[in-house]
Fold this sequence. Notes:
Helix content: 25-40%
Number of domains: 1
Number of helices: 5
Distance between the termini: 11 Å
Largest sheet: 4 strands, antiparallel
Strand order of the largest sheet: 1-2-4-3
Shape: globular
Order of helices and strands: HEHHEHEHE
Amino acid sequence: MERIDAFMEEIKPLVHELALLDTKDIPFSEEVVAACARNACGCYGKTWQCPPGVGTLAERMRICRAFDHAIVFTTRHALDDSFDIDGWARGREVHEKTTDCVLELFPPMKHLAFSAEGCHLCKACTYPDAPCRFPDRARVSVEANGIFVVELARMCGIRYHNGKNTVTYFSMILF
């Protein structure tokens, strides 16, 4: 764990908040999967990185719990107002770049990373007709795993809401 402690110290300047937890404590929820099925984001059934393409909740839980620990981290982004959709998109892009930087610094050990929202690598996903074009770059979102992020934040002592006119994005690295 010394390497992980050093890693967490190294990434502190890159992220807003971070925490370490055991994967057995990750809060999974059928309600999160049901929220995905309501398709508010428009990605349900359209990408390998969102339900149902990611598999069932039981399958996602099994994948996550095959690892012992998880690091959760966030980035926080200012918005012009709560309807600043362009600001949300800019924030998500910065979050994805931050997640890439964090992963470049991760110690050489088996790990699996999740990020924010659905996959946006391809203009049109191959789902369900052909395999993912970029399986090494595409990331399932924390929520697409059926993880109840509000509860995860509470458990980790990380703020889910960071004030008026902000958006907070979450990533997770299992190891």
